[in-house]
DNA sequence: AGCACA
């Protein structure tokens, strides 16, 4: 036995600003502690619920004399110190300050642990969580998991993770899209739920696939709200957000397995993302949010009428409108306000999404616009020629305006010419929040 | 009823 432990219980302890209190009622609160001690001085710190029985505590006074006065008082008092009817024994602590080593969960930090009760798994999406907590500031990252037995997150359990801090990727979709596959992996439930957001993997990416290219390709099936491009295991992937599942399903059905360019280049493999609302930088080279009004034309467009609460809109298949499938139809009443104007730039001859001709050789009845009529650098969408597998008159213009000049490449995007004509886009007809390249 | 924290 060491001398220090012998000294631990000595009768005459050196006075300390810190008092050790024992025989407290179980889980004595800090308030109860202060009520007992504050008549003797100013309390600068406490530590409650100490010991296996959680019935000890420490109180630190601002001044040593205050601690001495308390000890002295009760040493000579006929009335012992009491809390909730229990006699409290008070001594000088053998330390001279309280160090508050709180339990991990009590340490103020920049990461909150949120427990959501009374919901089924997946009822509260990461998007909703993001929305809620964004009200108080920038949310850097979110990880969700199910706590079943124990407190550890098993490596095999689903753990949805979003990173909002990557400057290149406003959202680290790499992680979450990867998590989807492991989540539904081994137990046979590989069925991915439909989503209004498509995950596109681009194989054999011989040529650059830009946001603009993707926008053009995927706009053939409806309004593309947001796009995010990222790298995953050296492969380029992209997320394409539609307003609803129906449109996304149509696009997926039509585009799956097809190539953006002739010759098997930039082959698309499409699946459903777990996302319903992407959090992307509105104008970056790797992402685009078409629901955010282009600042350069915002003034001319008036108030934005984009999806202000987009994460809920695509959630209900019942609200899916018919116009995506029947593009000549006037949209129904539940269509957002910008939709009717969309019809103005959506020609009736664009075939239904299901028959969207990609590299299949099915040539739609499209007018042949003169490529020369198009501003050379105005838009990467500018595929004015009809479907042709023989030549790509302009190539896919890069954002810089330079042409790719890919011989023999015939991009998918040609079918989009009908409703996105850079040289004929009516300013008023462009749906609000749908300003493509201002 | 007798000293946290590492």
Outline the structure in words.
Pfam families: RRM_1, RRM_8. GO terms for molecular function: mRNA binding. It is found in: Nucleus. This is Polypyrimidine tract-binding protein-like 1. Keywords: Acetylation, mRNA processing, Nucleus, Repeat, RNA-binding. By secondary structure, this protein is α+β, with helices and mostly antiparallel strands. Among the domains are: 75 residues, 2-Layer Sandwich (Alpha-Beta Plaits); 93 residues, Alpha-Beta Plaits, CATH 3.30.70. It is built from 9 helices and 14 strands. The strands form 4 sheets. A 6-stranded antiparallel sheet has the order 12-13-9-11-10-14, with helices on both faces. β12 and β13 form a beta hairpin. The longest helix has 13 residues. The N terminus and C terminus are likely disordered. The structure holds one DNA strand of 6 nucleotides.
How many distinct beta strands? Answer: 14
**Structural class of the helix and strand makeup?**
alpha+beta
Strand content: 15-25%
- Mean pLDDT equals 67
Q: What is the succession of H and E elements?
A: HEHEEHEEEHEEHEHEEHEEEHH
Largest sheet: 6 strands, antiparallel
CATH topology of the domain at 197-289: the name is Alpha-Beta Plaits
Morphology call: rod-shaped
CATH architecture of the domain at 197-289: 2-Layer Sandwich
Amount of helix: 10-25%
CATH class of the domain at 197-289: Alpha Beta
Q: Which strands sit side by side, in order, in the main sheet?
A: 12-13-9-11-10-14
CATH superfamily of the domain at 197-289: RRM (RNA recognition motif) domain
**What gap, in angstroms, lies between the N and C termini?**
81 Å
């Amino acid at each position: 036995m060491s001398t220090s432990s012998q000294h631990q219980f000595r009768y005459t302890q050196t006075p300390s600003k810190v008092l050790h209190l024992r025989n407290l009622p179980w889980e004595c609160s800090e308030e109860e502690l202060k009520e007992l001690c504050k008549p003797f001085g100013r309390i600068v710190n406490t530590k409650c619920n100490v010991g296996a029985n959680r019935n000890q505590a420490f109180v630190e006074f601002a001044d040593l004399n205050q601690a001495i006065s308390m000890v002295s008082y009760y040493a000579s008092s006929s009335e012992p110190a009491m809390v909730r009817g229990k006699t409290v024994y008070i001594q000088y602590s053998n330390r001279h300050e309280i160090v508050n080593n709180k339990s991990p969960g009590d340490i103020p930090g920049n990461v909150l642990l949120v427990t959501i009760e009374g919901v089924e798994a997946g009822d509260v999406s990461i998007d909703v969580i993001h929305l809620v907590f964004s009200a108080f500031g920038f949310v850097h990252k979110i990880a969700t998991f199910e706590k079943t037995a124990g407190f550890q997150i098993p490596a095999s359990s689903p753990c949805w993770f979003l990173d909002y801090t990557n400057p290149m990727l406003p959202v680290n979709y790499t992680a979450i899209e990867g998590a989807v596959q492991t989540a539904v992996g081994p137990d046979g439930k590989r069925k991915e739920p439909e989503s209004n957001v498509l995950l596109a993997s681009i194989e054999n990416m011989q040529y650059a696939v830009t946001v603009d290219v993707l926008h053009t390709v995927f706009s053939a099936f409806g309004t593309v709200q947001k796009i995010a491009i990222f790298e995953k295991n050296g492969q380029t992937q992209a997320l394409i957000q539609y307003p609803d599942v129906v449109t996304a399903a149509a696009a997926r059905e039509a585009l799956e397995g097809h190539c953006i360019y002739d010759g098997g280049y930039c082959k698309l493999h499409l699946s459903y993302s777990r996302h319903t609302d992407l959090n992307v930088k509105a104008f970056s080279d790797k992402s685009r949010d078409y629901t955010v009004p282009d600042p350069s034309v915002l003034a001319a467009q008036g108030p934005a009428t984009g999806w202000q609460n987009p994460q809920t809109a695509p959630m209900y298949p019942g609200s899916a409108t018919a116009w995506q499938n029947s593009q000549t139809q006037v949209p129904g009443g539940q269509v957002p306000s910008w939709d009717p104007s969309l019809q103005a730039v959506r020609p009736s001859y664009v075939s239904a999404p299901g028959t969207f001709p990609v590299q299949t050789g099915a040539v739609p009845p499209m007018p042949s616009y003169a490529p020369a009529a198009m501003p050379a650098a105005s838009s990467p969408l500018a595929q004015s020629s009809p479907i042709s597998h023989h030549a790509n008159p302009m190539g896919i213009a890069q954002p810089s305006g330079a042409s790719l000049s890919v011989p023999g490449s015939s991009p998918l995007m040609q079918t989009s010419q009908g409703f996105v004509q850079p040289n004929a886009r009516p300013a008023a007809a462009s749906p609000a929040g749908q300003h493509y390249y201002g």
